[in-house]
Write a structure and sequence with these properties.
Blueprint lengths: L3 H26 L9 H45 L2 H16 L6 H8 L3 H25 L3 H9 L4 H39 L4 H10 L3 H29 L13
Length: 257
Amino acid sequence: MMTALRRRFLSGALIVGFFLAWQVTCAALNVSDIVLPMPSTILATLIRDFPAIWPHAFQTLYTTLLGFALAIVLGVLLGIVVGSSRVAYDVANPLLVGFASVPKVAVVPIFVLWFGAGTVPAVLTAMVTSVFPIVVNVATGLATTEPELEDFMRTLHATKLDRLRNVGLPRTMPYFFASLKVAVTLAFVGTVISETVASNRGIGNVMMIASSNFDVPLVFAGLLILAVLGVALYAVFSIVEARTTGWATRGVDLASL
């Protein structure tokens, strides 16, 4: 079995190889920066403009985490309600799917109409973009709880709340943490969508202004920041998942994670 250290080395080598191939291809074909800037140009732009960029990066991170926290609270509550009853699951599922199918860029003008331009629409967009995976995974985890466990708890005269607390929710944890890794990346998407439409702060706004000025390296620098933040948060939740729900993972050396 491949060791964790070797997996990390290969992952890092793949990333470095990707950017090297990008650099060499752009240099060999003499690609214009307006079309596709080289990674070295993007990095130089990021270093040059970092004092001006980092407050926007912090704003985007703050907005995303706030919207994501709201999505966790709302998603868990809705997931428990939907997943605790088979009837509720069957009835609410079409509504949830329909809500998730609405393009989130279409709800930004509504939030702006209600709350004005700024941070609040970005937070709400991040929330509605990331809440669906949490609801579905929590509901699925509860709905697929083994009947034997439920029957065993009934023989102990456990109440429905006891069964939920001692069986349902622990059984749902692997689904819950898996949904967080997906939802946190979607939260960034929602934040940037709102920032490009109705905000004067954030990486999305920086990218919009840069594109209007044909400053393509700055646009890619914004994309790079978003990618780094997304990967960092994904890694954080992966570590928390491994430490919290390691009992549900077979064949993995948790000490190496």
